[in-house]
Amino acid sequence: MNDANAQAIYFYDRHPMSGEIIKAKLRAARGHLDGVTPEELWPHDQDHYGGIAATDALAAAAAIGPGTEVADFCAGLGGTVRYLAHRYGADVTGIELTPSRVAAAQELIALVGLEDRARVRQGNVMDVPLADESMDVVVSQEALCHVPDHAKTLVEAFRVLRRGGRLAMTDWIANKPLSTQDAKLMWDGMAIQPLETLASYGAIARAAGFRVEAVTDLTQEWGPILQQRLAMYRRLREEARAAGTPMGHDAFHDSYIRFVELITKRELGGIRLIAVK
Fold this sequence. Notes:
alpha/beta; seven-stranded mixed sheet; 7 strands; 19% strand
């Protein structure tokens, strides 16, 4: 395992959202885990910037509907996998590097009874364990920033898509090059690799063979969303401190504070990219 993989796994093993935390919140809200519906997970497992609305935007751009075969690159705990399977009737396969998150995602899929059309497999998105031309859509949300080779990843997305298949993704971008100090902070706290720009992501997609339909700058939209998330993380840390339980990964907390500052200053930002094979 290379350093990039090890650092990403280390980060996600200590992420403030986990399968155990989601189940604990469900138990607190309803007293037990019997008969949990997919909708009951949504307040807890939709961890992407903008929540369900952001996923709906990707689904609309990718024309996801009943029976659409979707691959979710860097699927995490499977929130998007479950949502697209239940809300849109798609058949969704998540690819996730971190073993603990694969196991938690599969457990949550079983908890809400979506095993027939949702699954998360362990794998690396630079070498995807899916057959050529086996998918209609590839999605990814704020995750390729952890992957060291974006060009190789988009080549893999192109490979697994059928002709006419669509790529719909969001990710971090650098509107201004990070300082050495900030780059180290983002690596230590959140396993962030060197970031693309709006222009370079479009160029990488075209080099992989895609026809780029839309490139949208999400930087302004993300600002207030991330400020709210930072307030949530601070609240969770305070609740953990008061309860005498572990307060999470300090390096993550420090880097996240700086991340939100850089987003607010528009030095970092976000992209939504839609492309067609």
